């Protein structure tokens, strides 16, 4: 597990008031070349366009209790989280995207209200993240 978790994140200024992008400043291992993006389309319930508290709570638990707790053991690294106008995205770099997806599904299947889809970018090696931030 990554130590000093809260100290390693940085917020990115965006031109969109309805967007929150945070990313980790930590070193990205060269072996983690494939990018897995976990996407959840949430219902926009207010003018701010952010997820409701129960959605935020579920995905906070997903991140802190599942992803970060096991990222070293399972050969993946959460590098960014983007919340923007109805879409929650987790950017995860990994060695084995199939194994990572299977691991993430263990938690995600615990609540059918929060369906996710996965996008895989093979041999990304950090380029999508560089474009994002």
Detailed description of the structure:
- InterPro entries: DUF695.
- Residues 24-125 form the DUF695 domain.
- With 133 residues, this protein is of the alpha+beta class.
- It has a domain at 34-126: Alpha-Beta Plaits, CATH 3.30.70.
- Helices cover 27% and strands 30% of the residues.
- It is built from 3 helices and 6 strands, in the order βββαββαβα.
- The longest helix has 18 residues, at 53-70.
- The chain starts with 8 loop residues before the first strand and ends with a helix.
Features:
six-stranded antiparallel β-sheet; Alpha-Beta Plaits; alpha+beta; disordered N terminus; 27% helix; 6 strands; 133 residues
Summed up:
A hairpin with a 6-residue loop joins strand 1 and strand 2. This protein has 133 residues and is of the alpha+beta class.
Q: Let me know the average pLDDT.
A: 83
Order of helices and strands: EEEHEEHEH
The helicity comes to 25-40%
| Spans where pLDDT lies below 50 across 5 or more residues | 1-6
End-to-end separation in angstroms reads 24 Å
Could you tell me the radius of gyration in angstroms? 14 Å
Identify the CATH architecture of one domain: 2-Layer Sandwich
How many DSSP-defined strands? Answer: 6
Protein name: DUF695 domain-containing protein
InterPro entries: DUF695 (IPR016097)
Organism: Halarcobacter mediterraneus
